[in-house]
User: What shape does this take?
Amino acid sequence: MSADEVWLGALHRDDWALPSGLCSANGSDVAQRFGIYRNNVLSACTQALADTCPVCQALVGEAFFAGLALAFAQQQLPRSRRLAFYGQGFAEFVRQFPPAQSLPYLADVAQLEMARVQAYHAADAEGVSPERLQAAMHPDADLPAWRFALHPSLHLIDSPMAVLSLWQAHQHDAAQRDAVLADIPLDRPECTAVFRSGDAVFCLPVSAADMALLSGLQADLALGEAIALAPAGADGEALDISQTLALLLQHQLITDVMHPPNDHTPQGD
Assistant: This one.
């Protein structure tokens, strides 16, 4: 086992031996000082998760969330010095965490909140130019064969629970929040698109058909192939391709359009 693995193991667990070679210049108890350091590391991790997932914390209470976050931190320490990015895998951990099994919406709320942070810090990308888009819309172009590159901040969350409604309710003050929460059917499936437009992060509801289409485009399918994946979803709402494209264009979420091989449509740029 490498020295790094020993060090990380000692940070994760109380029952690991101290890393070899530790000493104190003033003769103080090395084990005690390392314990303080370990507690500070774990405390920073749990606070970072609380900052990223305030709605999760509000749903379960500070004490429960602190225990949940600590259990995660003891398994996964940060891999970056920027704690804003800490929490990869947290949603899946919540999904498997035994004390949270009675809260089937909690993991997807964590996924949504993590997606908001990831969207905010995603790379910048300009929306596709009008000339490039006109080339795809040209009457002689085979539009279904074109591929659309989507903004790197776009995250899609398909949940069997009303996670977007739960998150939105917690954007109100306490009195209004509680009134809104009382009217939310928790077992209502909801699909959410999370993305950054300008400097703002948006969480918008989309239909199941839109979700299938956008997922297909993200997977580099041609537009026609992605549309084929998007019949009327479980919510009964059929795909409205013009409305979906309008949403993407409004928020400049289409960053490029790629013509199919052997297509000689004028590119316009």
